Amino acid sequence: GSESSGGHYRQRRQGSMDMASVGSESSGGRRSRNTSYADRLEFARDMGKKTSFSMNRQKTDNTDEYGVSFNSNTQSRNLHEPEEPPNPEPLAHSSFRGEMSNSRNGIQQASDHARMLDNNIVENEAVGVTQLAAAKPAAKPAAAKLAPDDVTLNELKSLVNDMMPSAKDCVEIVLGILLESMRCHEHNEEIQEYGLQQMVLLAKADNGNDGNQRAILDLNIHKVAMEAMENHKSHPSILKESCEFLWTLALADSCRAKVIQAGATTSILKVVEEQPQEENVVRMAIGALRCLSADSKTKYFLKIKPVAKAMKIQKINTDIQRDGCAYLSNAAVDTENETVAVVPHEVMEVVVDALTIHWRRNNEVAESASFCLKNYTFEEANIRTLALFRKLPKILEDVGVKGVGDALDVAESIRLQSQLDGSLEDIVLPSMVEAGTGHNAVDNVTDLMVEYDWSLRLTSCALECLGSLVQQSPADRHDIVFKGALKKVMEAMDRFIVDEDLQMKSFAVIQVLAQESEFSSHLRRFHIASYIERSLAVHKNNEGLQQIGRETLNYI
């Protein structure tokens, strides 16, 4: 977290890759710096036959925690990042075991020969040290030259397994092989998926000071992963591996900015938007978005509705709900300006559903959802939206009893705001009734609906006034349609969709207008039928509402 935000970053990593002693024969001789890709593969195969590695992979639950906070009026708001992506199970086709040798010269010999193959080599003759120059993607040669027919997926697997790095000196050559294989076979789904799987393993390997991640970024391999996402939109496995790969890179402080700069946030959001039904894809994508969204540089690229839609579809998956709530919180909070956005009702509903469904069995989801709702309460309009969920205060109290303090804070915010709003409604209500009977009644009622659109009580009173006015004269009906009152009726139906009484009053106003041909065409142009159908879908068991709704649709 940035120091200016008063944040902190804590990272706990476990697990390591241990390398057994390696022996290899020296093949001797220098190769041309312009060695072709096919020659490099052939040479690497030869080296693989002479060199065998043995590594033990330790599967652990790695956890990264990230916090950003700022203070406003003695209140604190926190943004957080998720756990590290789950370590994948060992691949069935991968083997890291080989013959063991007591010779410790093998590592250096294999590394020296491998490094000679790279085009970006700068050799310091004075001190006899070979250094890797800043990697720049070379222009892609002809596919026939770089991807000979005999380079199959199985051969690539065998080659990478033999050359899989067991020390940091070997990382660059393996990355180069994987990179060029993916570029030369960009439409081969198997090679793309395998390459990404190996990239995830390399990115997760602890090489000290994020060494592997930086090497990957220097080669622009993260862009190759984004290209794979674009080229294989209908291949869930590739999308999943790509999202996990980008997530792993973004966990490193030194790498996150470059991943964001490359446009990873937009690419991952596109995956969520296009593949909300794919549970494993969405799980990795939203996890990556949670990590990226904590950086202020992503603020202008964040979208909340695609994530909310995916969470609504994947209600049961606790990882998606936990990380999704954290993302929705990060997307709403502007740490630089210390403001919180007004959150739409349908997005708020997703967070409330996550809490309602999972609070008894999953404390992580309960904490994440409560934390998100607490951040939302720093905007008054959001508290009023939360007050519409009538069962929420009791749920928040139950969650608070389990030790989630944020839930109790949200419940208290709702209680205090409801008391203040109740007092204000008592003052405004007589003015609302009077406005519906005086001169320019439609205009006056509409103005009050705009000002107090958060209040169910005042909106319901305004609809009663409009229901009376719509019956009185053609002039009043004309004003309701063309002076903004009808639009406010539609907004009220959407905002207070769970309130049956308000829906009935709205239907009554619309039905009178729909019976006149002068206005029915305008109702169709406003797509008001979709609002009625959505209301009927919510209130399936209310026979009276169903009857008047169907009659109104017939008139329209």
Overall description:
There is one protein chain. Helices cover 60% and strands 7% of the residues. The chain is mainly alpha-helical and 556 residues long. The radius of gyration is 31 Å and the shape is elongated. It starts with 7 loop residues before the first strand and ends with a helix. The relative contact order is 0.06.
Describe the structure concisely.
The chain has 556 residues and is mainly alpha-helical. It contains 27 helices and 9 strands.
Unreliable spans are: 1-35, 47-79, 88-150
What is the 3D form?
A: elongated
Whole-number radius of gyration?
31 Å
Mean pLDDT comes to 76
**Number of helical runs?**
27
What is the beta-strand fraction?
Answer: 5-15%
Cα distance, first to last residue? 55 Å
Task: Count the E strands.
Answer: 9
Question: What about the largest sheet?
Answer: 3 strands, antiparallel
Helix share bin: 55-70%
* Side-by-side strand order of the widest sheet: 1-4-5
Q: Provide the structure class.
A: mainly alpha
Oligomer: single chain
Which labels suit this protein?
556 residues, three-stranded antiparallel sheet, single chain, two-stranded antiparallel ribbon, mainly alpha, 9 strands
What's the structural blueprint in terms of helices and strands?
Blueprint: E1 8-12, E2 17-19, H1 37-50, E3 55-57, E4 63-72, E5 75-81, H2 105-115, E6 121-124, E7 129-132, H3 143-146, H4 153-163, H5 171-184, H6 189-204, H7 211-218, H8 221-231, H9 236-250, H10 253-261, H11 264-274, H12 279-293, H13 305-313, H14 318-332, E8 333-334, E9 339-340, H15 345-358, H16 363-376, H17 380-386, H18 392-401, H19 405-435, H20 441-451, H21 456-469, H22 474-482, H23 485-495, H24 500-514, H25 517-525, H26 528-538, H27 543-555
Antiparallel strand pairs: 1-4, 2-3, 4-5, 6-7, 8-9
